[in-house]
């Protein structure tokens, strides 16, 4: 009996050790990815180096290479994780709108959720729109863009049921283009100036969509703009 208990204890320890090693490895990967996000955001992808990432993480280059063979592999892993989070974010931000919701409220809710993600993860914009990013990330970005566009089209089609498909696509393209242009300006500023650009972005989208939507949604503000807090 005692021999069996001793064997069971040894088996349990042997199983626990790989789990601990795996947990330590995951923590180290998360540490390296956080450091890479800081370096990519500060210097851009092209100018970043594995040495700079290792230094930011407080580890040796050799430790970094135990987990990632090069800078591209780090960027692809980081981009993939952020892409999955972004898909969850726009799924919430572009959910169907209650007809009683005003256009101002709908635009504000969607923009706030999308901007919150990008402001919390500025490296996402760097990787998705920066020059010389890995081809894998560029492909993932194109797929994300297409999916995001289709979600905007679906949302607009519920508000504009009689719209011609070509017109609907053009409107969705304009909304996405306006948002991306505004996003770049928002990320380039801080504090009160950033808040001002956020308001301007919302106002542009509201004023663009208001004549198209007409009376199909509720009204919270007759000016067609976001009030200054």
From TrEMBL:
Q: Which domain of life is it from?
A: Bacteria
Q: Which SUPFAM superfamilies match?
A: Homeodomain-like (SSF46689)
Using the UniProt annotation, give all residue ranges assigned to the region (Disordered).
Answer: 1-25
Keywords attached to this Swiss-Prot or TrEMBL record, sorted alphabetically, are:
DNA-binding, Transcription, Transcription regulation
Chain residues forming the annotated DNA-binding region: 49-68
| PROSITE patterns hit by this protein | HTH_TETR_1, HTH_TETR_2
The HTH tetR-type domain covers 26-86
Q: What is this protein called?
A: TetR family transcriptional regulator
């Amino acid at each position: 009996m005692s021999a069996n208990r001793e064997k069971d204890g040894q088996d349990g320890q042997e199983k626990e050790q790989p789990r601990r090693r795996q947990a330590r490895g995951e923590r180290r990967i998360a540490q390296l990815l956080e450091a890479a996000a800081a370096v990519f955001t500060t210097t851009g992808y092209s100018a970043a180096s594995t040495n700079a990432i290792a230094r930011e993480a407080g580890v040796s280059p050799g430790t970094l290479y135990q987990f990632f063979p090069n800078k591209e592999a780090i960027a692809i892993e980081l981009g993939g994780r952020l892409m999955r989070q972004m898909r969850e974010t726009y799924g919430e931000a572009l959910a169907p709108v209650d007809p009683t919701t005003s256009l101002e409220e709908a635009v504000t809710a969607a923009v706030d959720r999308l901007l919150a993600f990008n402001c919390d993860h500025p490296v996402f914009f760097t990787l998705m729109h920066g020059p010389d990013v890995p081809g894998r990330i560029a492909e993932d970005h194109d797929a994300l863009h297409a999916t995001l566009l289709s979600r905007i089209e679906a949302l607009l089609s519920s508000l504009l049921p009689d719209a011609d498909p070509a017109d609907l696509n053009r409107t969705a393209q304009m909304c996405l283009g306006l948002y991306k242009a505004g996003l770049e300006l928002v990320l380039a500023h801080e504090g009160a100036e950033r808040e001002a650009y956020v308001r301007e972005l919302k106002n542009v989208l509201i004023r663009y969509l208001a004549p198209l939507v007409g009376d199909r949604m509720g009204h919270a503000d007759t000016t067609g703009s976001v009030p200054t807090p």
